[in-house]
Design brief:
The complex is a heterodimer. By secondary structure, chain A is of the alpha/beta class. Chain A has two domains: 164 residues, P-loop containing nucleotide triphosphate hydrolases (Rossmann fold, 3-Layer(aba) Sandwich); 77 residues, no CATH class. Chain A has nine helices and ten strands. Chain A has a six-stranded mixed β-sheet, sandwiched between helices. In chain A, strand 1 and strand 2 form a beta hairpin. The radius of gyration of chain A is 18 Å and the shape is globular. The two termini of chain A are 34 Å apart. Chain B has a single domain, classed as ABC transporter involved in vitamin B12 uptake, BtuC (Orthogonal Bundle), CATH 1.10.3470. Chain B is mainly alpha-helical. Chain B is 73% helix and 0% strand. Chain B has 15 helices and no strands. Classes of the chains: A alpha/beta, B mainly alpha. At the A-B interface, helix 2, helix 3 and helix 4 of A face helix 1, helix 9 and helix 10 of B.
């Protein structure tokens, strides 16, 4: 199978600290892959390297075979690499419809369109509505994002990334902080993501990891520690020792 | 182009920001009514229109793109000199003069925008201030071109559209400035409600997320800053043409500070704030300066402190509550 996202010897130093240590990682086409690791394992740094927020000290990042190591974050998004954030990063003053519409508009090259009213293009509107339906946001389309229930904000967080029509979607703790009552909607929409989107899930919540992921990579102290199917990783005593044993309360 | 029901609803919701509100009709009706109803006040009304355009320009930078600047006079001043030079050496036609002013403002704005992409608000304040100071000093030193401290004079501005010659009462000047303001306002309104405009608003709210949906943040900031600088240049050009004179104070630090004050008074991010602020500012300056010429800045300072500490909304509410206590009020 072809890797849709691949890193080769990806390394990042912060002064003397090696936050990401020679990580060579492959995300297969259509994958449901989870990245786990104890606190401070370097998951966030790894995501920031993938998305271009940080640049690596060494190593390469390939997206569908093309080297994107030096591309800016927004250029990577346009190439098909979208992400969600662990802490909501939304536009407080916009509505969910406008937020999703903006992502669609940028993908359709709407950023250069300064003379038409936002929403004047039927293609944009139809697509935005479709995405809102998929993520169960139709009942709050027109509310200010800042006023939405937290669970809806988490859904919007994924919806707006999905609206970039990514080839690779990085989900950074999508269920973090979502109250039990709103959790079901969120997990159901994550499970229903179409297979042409390859998903890398970064997660603490083991229930979510094992219900969703087919493959799991374990990151410890900045390096890849183990990788395998969900069953293999769950059964691995070394993984249990470094992670599962201590991390149950996380 | 008929859409299915939910999509038609959505299209309507997406267009809602751009809908013209009744207060807007009122605002422009009042502005144009002043053309006919207040002929003896056209000189000061002209100066309000010019400042309003300048403040509108600054709102695009501060209110929409979220760039704080203390050097917006740079573009105003460059535009004023460009209009002056165009009139003196090329053609007296006012609209061509304005085109030169806008072009000059835009070129300087585009070039300096790259200095503002990095860094914090403080960096941006200092860099924009620095650019304006440099330009002011260049204008001062290049007296052979700008007239230096004596000012730039000898402009013979031709009639507008070849028909309406400027008069000493400011009738044509105000009509001209108001029409330019209106046209540019309409254009600005179209731009801020376009997909481009929404992306700029969004990146102001949250640059991290804007990048994460593929918005090329720096390019958008450069574009918006340049667009606003063109407006500021045209405002400077209007001042030069309608007063037939350019003095060094078009590039003065005070002018940059004043436009910030106007926007603080009127409120940012809805296009009208700068224009309302400009009107209040110029009128207050006129009234207070004739009452107590030396203490004008005392009063504006006091107003500023009250406004920022109390907050504009609360201030307006208190003022409303106070007004209801007055005899004769309901």
């Amino acid at each position: 199978m072809a890797a849709v996202l691949e890193t080769i010897g990806l390394t990042r130093h912060f002064g003397g600290l090696v936050a990401t240590n020679a990580v060579s990682f492959r995300l297969e086409q259509g994958a449901r892959h989870a990245l786990i690791g104890p606190n401070g394992a370097g998951k966030t740094t790894f995501i920031n390297l993938l998305t271009g927020v940080l640049s690596p000290s060494e190593g390469k990042i390939l997206l569908e075979g093309a080297d994107v190591t030096t591309l800016q974050p927004d250029a990577r998004v346009r190439r098909g690499l979208a992400r969600t954030f662990q802490i909501n990063q939304l536009f407080a003053g916009l509505t969910p419809l406008e937020t999703i519409g903006l992502a669609v508009s940028e993908r359709l090259g709407g950023g250069a369109d300064w003379w038409r009213r936002f929403g004047a293009r039927p293609a944009l509107v139809t697509e935005a509505i479709g995405i809102a339906e998929r993520f169960r946001l139709t009942d709050v389309l027109d509310r200010k994002t800042a006023e939405l229930p937290y669970g809806k904000q988490r859904l919007l967080e994924i919806a707006v990334a999905f609206a970039c029509r990514p080839r690779v979607l990085l989900l950074d703790e999508p269920a973090a902080g979502v109250p039990e009552a709103e959790r079901h909607d969120l997990l159901a929409t994550v499970a229903a993501l179409p297979r042409d989107v390859s998903v890398l899930l970064i997660e603490h919540d083991m229930d979510l990891v094992f219900s969703f992921a087919e493959r799991i990579s374990v990151l410890v102290q900045g390096a890849l520690f183990r990788e395998g199917t969900a069953a293999e990783v769950a059964a691995d005593p070394a993984v249990r020792a470094v992670y599962l044993g201590e991390g149950d309360d996380a | 182009m008929s859409l299915p029901e939910p999509a038609a609803d959505a299209a309507r919701l997406l267009g809602r920001r751009a809908r013209i509100r009744p207060a807007e009709w009122l605002f422009w009706a009042l502005a144009f009514a002043a053309l006919f109803l207040l002929p003896e006040r056209h000189l000061i009304l002209n100066s309000i229109a010019v400042q309003a355009l300048f403040a509108l320009s600054y709102d695009l930078v501060l209110g929409f793109a979220g760039i704080v600047s203390l050097g917006h006079a740079a573009f105003f001043g460059v535009g004023a000199y460009a209009a002056g030079l165009m009139t003196k050496f090329v053609t007296g036609d006012p609209l061509l003069g304005l085109a030169a002013a806008g072009l000059a403002g835009g070129v300087v704005g585009f070039a300096s925008s790259f200095l503002l992409l990095r860094g914090s608000d403080l960096t941006r304040l200092m860099v924009s201030l620095g650019v304006a100071l440099i330009l002011a000093e260049i204008a001062n030193k290049a007296a052979w071109l700008t007239g230096g401290t004596d000012g730039f004079s000898g402009m013979a501005v031709g009639p507008v559209l070849g028909r309406y010659a400027f008069d000493i009462f400011g009738h044509v000047a105000f009509a001209y400035s108001l029409c330019v303001l209106f046209v540019l306002f309409v254009l600005a309104r179209i731009v801020v409600h376009s997909p481009f405009g929404l992306s700029v608003t969004a990146l102001h709210h949250n640059p991290l997320r804007a990048r994460a949906v593929g918005v090329p943040v720096n390019r958008r900031l450069v574009a918006m800053y340049t667009f606003a600088a063109i407006y500021a240049g045209i405002a400077g050009g209007l001042l030069a043409q309608t007063t037939q004179f350019v003095s060094l104070d078009v590039l003065d630090f005070n002018r940059s500070a004043d436009v910030l004050l106007m926007l603080v008074i009127g409120g940012t991010g809805y296009l009208y704030g700068g224009m309302i602020g400009a009107a209040l500012f110029v009128l207050a300056q006129d009234q207070l300066a004739s009452l107590t010429p030396q203490y004008w800045h005392f009063w504006i300072g006091l107003a500023l402190v009250v406004l920022t500490l109390v907050g504009r909304e609360r201030f307006a509410k208190r003022l409303g509550a106070f007004a209801r206590l007055l005899p004769g009020a309901r």
